[in-house]
Amino acid sequence: MAKDLKLTFLLDFYGPLLTGPQREMVEAYYNEDLSLAEIAEERGITRQGVRDAVKRAQQELEEMETKLGLAHRFLEMRKALENICDCALAVLGQCGPENEDIVENCEKILELAGKIAENE
Length: 120
Prior knowledge:
Layout: H1 3-14, H2 20-31, H3 36-43, H4 47-68, H5 70-94, H6 100-118
Helix pairs in contact: 1-2, 1-4, 2-4, 3-4, 5-6
């Protein structure tokens, strides 16, 4: 995962734990693609002040992920869910309509997996 994308992803998980100004500056820098100078002008502070706040927030986001691992766990769960769906589809493809119980259980697995994916 590219560094910018990784930090945006971490911001989705841990952004509410940053201070308001830190979160706003990081979101402006990564999500809105504003330059440090643009953010500084908008906030009435120096470019260096914005850079320091963004760097500090990046470190905090990475530290939170190291300690808590929520983003990593989310990606692993998503992969596992995709594998479950692939297996259910493979079983469906291997059995005929005469195997009603198997077809019904595979469809139920796919339905439940879909509900889990919706709640992510």
